[in-house]
Amino acid sequence: MQSLWFFDDVDLFKVLCPHKIKTFAKGHNFCVYKKKDYIYFESDSANKVYLIEKGKVKIGYCTDDGKEVVKAILTKGELFGEKAILGDEKRDEFAQSIDDITSICPISVDTMHNLMRDNQSFSLKIYKFIGFKFKKLERRLQLLLFKDTKTRLKEFLDELCADYGCDCQATGDQIIKHPFTQKDIASLIGTSRPTINILLNELKEENYLDFNRKEIRILKTSA
Q1: 108: number of Cβ within 10 Å
Q2: Same domain, residue pair 153 and 87
Q3: What backbone torsions phi and psi does residue 164 show, to the nearest 5 degrees?
Q4: Greater pLDDT, 20 or 176
Q5: 113, 143, 173: which is the final residue of a domain?
Q6: Sheet harboring 57-62: ordered strands across?
Q7: Which domain range does residue 182 map to?
Q8: For residue 122, is pLDDT > 60?
């Protein structure tokens, strides 16, 4: 399942009637953040949700001993801060830009509630989206707790296949053109970038995959 919305050729609220799309467009501006800028911190008021128009955002929290735990890295077209819709008054996570330029559209919780109240189809999409994110986060936490690093990487690659993969008709391989760096992947599965590089090369030697900076190819022989 790819991101819920894309800005290239799809209206953000395509499920809404046109006059509401125009109203939304006129009333909301985009905010621009530089790399390492925070959109919000833990314990900040939760009065907005956010849509990414460009760039990448890291979602995470800090443990009592100061260790950073990365819950998600989100890209163009994705929604975050969605717990505010469910009634959370304070953030229990931080959101940080990790691209040189990250453009984000903030939407007040009141606006979201009005949009959801006025359009049942839109409301259903939002709740499905939130449920999907919670389920995905729960699965990732289970991986961190119970699986070794190589298994975590392989299962993360399965997620990437579902989100960004396509079949190569000529070879039968799965081609994954994704937005994540090795550092991003390392953060998401709880390891280091050098370890990710070592494991990717091991999987390459095992004829499980091939990779470069732009894509990962899961080889048909590994199926």
Answers
A1: 14
A2: no
A3: -130, 0
A4: 176
A5: 143
A6: 38-40, 94-97, 57-62, 68-74
A7: 147-218
A8: yes
The pLDDT of 187-213, averaged and rounded, is 92
Proportion of the chain above pLDDT 90, given as a percent: 36
Among residues 143, 165, 200, which one ends one of the domains?
A: 143
Give the Cα separation of 167 and 174 in Å (integer): 5
d(CA 92, CA 107): 19
Q: How far apart are CA 148 and CA 66, in angstroms?
A: 23
Find the largest Cα–Cα distance for the chain: 56
Mean model confidence pLDDT for the chain: 82
Q: Which two tokens stand for residue 15?
A: 């499920």
CA pair distance 132, 74, nearest whole angstrom: 14
For residue range 68-89, list pLDDT tens digits in order.
888 888 888 788 999 999 999 9
Report the distance separating Cα 129 and Cα 157, nearest Å: 21
